[in-house]
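Hello again, I could really use a second opinion on something today. I owe you a coffee for this, so here goes:
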Amino acid sequence: MSVLAFTSFAGSPGVTTAAFAFGVHWPRPVIVFEAETSNVTSSMAGFFRSNLRPDAGGLDKVAVAYSRNALTWQDLVDPQRGLAIAVHELPEIAQTPIPSIPSSHRMWVVPGFYRLGIVDGVRGMWSRFPHLFRALSEAGFDVIVDLGRIAHEDIRLPILDGADRVLTFASSTMVDLNRIYRRTELPDLADRLEGVGRAEKYRLVLAGAPAESVPAASFNDHLMPIIAELPFDPEGAAVFSLGRPDAKPNRNSYRQAIRRAVSAVDEQSRSDLDRKAV
């Protein structure tokens, strides 16, 4: 199984939205971590439509378990611990429905922090996470980690190092092209994007822009290979981020693009595993 890190080196063009959309359409059991440190969780009000109590699960509770040295991969999927939310076990909610997942799909979510005041107190937790995610992967779960924007010398950089694949999100604008190019010149990312076997795991997901769209070839030539492209479809994306109803999912261009992106990323991930096995 794979550990996938979703992030941005410029702004944050729909990283969280895509992480949850990927989780909904992922072909195997998956755990989505909302691992933002600069903002409180958006998934509780967005993806979960404010249907759940703040203590239903999340990084606040994970941080407590970490501080007590009681955090294993089994704890994350143990319903008695309440660290992750099992989406596939939630009852149907008619008034403000959570985006539906296929009947046989198993998906867990660890929402982000509800209280930002505890972030600085658990700085060491981020270096523990790669081992935790690897244990989940070896136990048969795929892991999607939503990192949002990665700042310079970010405390979550160890997660990039431990991931099998890093999906970097960018808008198809000259602004993002320039920002990412200059950001990757800084040593913390430059070192990670050089050397055999390191840069290969970084791929770009290009999100459409309402104006001034730059050809995908420019991002391929100057940054890194593009593995998927998403349309500029705020209404379609809002199904996964803002609670918008999706009465006609087959006409949702964002959802359709997510399905294609999932297939591309999954195929690449399985190819990576096959090469490692040889």
About this structure: DSSP finds ten helices and eight strands in the chain.
